[in-house]
């Protein structure tokens, strides 16, 4: 382990009443003493390059802003990485555009090129409407020839309640690595409560490597109402794979989950948003 600090009728009725159910659930969450209701997002931004080939960080910001998400886990984020993203510090730019707090987890971290004072970094980020009081990034298992991945963790102060938020992006081309990484993620999150885990897991929920996550946590899409669709987020313009997932621990209740289709061309993934109740 490497650690870095850092029946048809039923369906029709369900669809017809989805809005009412969501409103009632949210109202219940707000009325419970000590509870907090949050909209959380997972979004693989593909270094802000859309399926149209256009690099547009402001377009990513518009999607996040339009979703109303309070806390966002971003994957495939560049930080002075290369000319492909114009050497930008993307997480900082997004935070500034949204007025959010931010932490970045570098999973590729190379020395600055000649003439530059910035390290060459690529990884994940967490954006939050609420203050981030602590954060760390832990490198996950990597077999030779695979890209380094990590688990980024932030403690968020939501009106006086601490919420532990985790964001990850598992190996794209190695099931062997993902099997190791999911077990490691469950071990790392441990007993911290309440907690929310989001990410691009590069595996379907029914895949063997997803089993540790499915056993340890609640799959928000599977457990909460969703007005339409099957939860698929990739590829963005004709999604067939549900690989972007929101998981919650005990102490966090999914209220409603939906795929965001504001601008499918913004990235090769669609964002996933879940409304959750944190606390009693």
Question: What brief labels describe this structure?
Answer:
single chain; alpha+beta; 6-stranded mixed sheet; 12 strands; disordered N terminus
Strand content: 25-35%
Q: Would you tell me the overall average pLDDT?
A: 90
Helix content: 10-25%
Low-confidence stretches: 1-30
Read across the widest sheet, the strand sequence of neighbours is 3-4-2-1-12-11
Taking the sheet with the most strands, its summary is: 6 strands, mixed
Write down the secondary-structure element order.
HEHEHEEEEEHEHEHEEE
- Discrete helix count: 6
Which secondary-structure class do the elements indicate? Answer: alpha+beta
> Termini, distance in Å?
34 Å
Looking at the structure, what is the overall shape?
globular
Number of strands: 12
Q: What is the radius of gyration?
A: 18 Å
């Amino acid at each position: 382990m490497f650690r870095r600090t850092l029946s048809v009728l039923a369906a029709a009725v369900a669809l017809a009443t989805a809005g009412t159910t969501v409103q009632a659930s949210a109202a219940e969450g707000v009325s419970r003493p000590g509870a907090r209701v949050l909209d959380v997002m997972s979004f693989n931004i593909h270094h802000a390059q859309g399926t149209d080939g256009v690099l547009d960080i402001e377009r990513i910001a518009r999607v996040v802003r339009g979703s109303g998400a309070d806390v966002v886990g971003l994957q495939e984020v560049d930080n002075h990485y290369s000319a492909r993203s114009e050497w930008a510090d993307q997480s900082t730019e997004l935070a500034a555009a949204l007025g959010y707090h931010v932490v970045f987890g570098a999973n590729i971290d190379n020395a600055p090129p000649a003439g530059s004072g910035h390290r060459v970094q690529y990884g994940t980020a967490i954006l939050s409407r609420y203050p981030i009081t602590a954060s760390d990034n832990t490198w996950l298992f990597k077999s030779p020839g695979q890209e380094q991945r990590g688990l980024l963790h932030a403690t968020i102060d939501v009106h006086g309640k601490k919420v532990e938020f985790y964001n990850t992006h598992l190996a794209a081309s190695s099931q062997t690595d993902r099997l190791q990484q999911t077990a490691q993620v469950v071990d790392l999150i441990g007993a911290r409560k309440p907690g929310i885990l989001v990410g691009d897991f590069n595996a379907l929920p029914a895949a063997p490597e997803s089993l540790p996550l499915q056993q340890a946590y609640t799959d928000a899409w599977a457990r909460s109402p969703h007005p339409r669709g099957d939860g698929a987020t990739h590829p963005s313009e004709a999604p067939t794979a549900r690989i972007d997932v929101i998981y919650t621990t005990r102490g966090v209740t999914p209220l409603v989950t939906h795929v965001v289709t504001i601008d499918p061309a913004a990235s090769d993934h669609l964002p996933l948003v879940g409304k959750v109740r944190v606390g009693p």
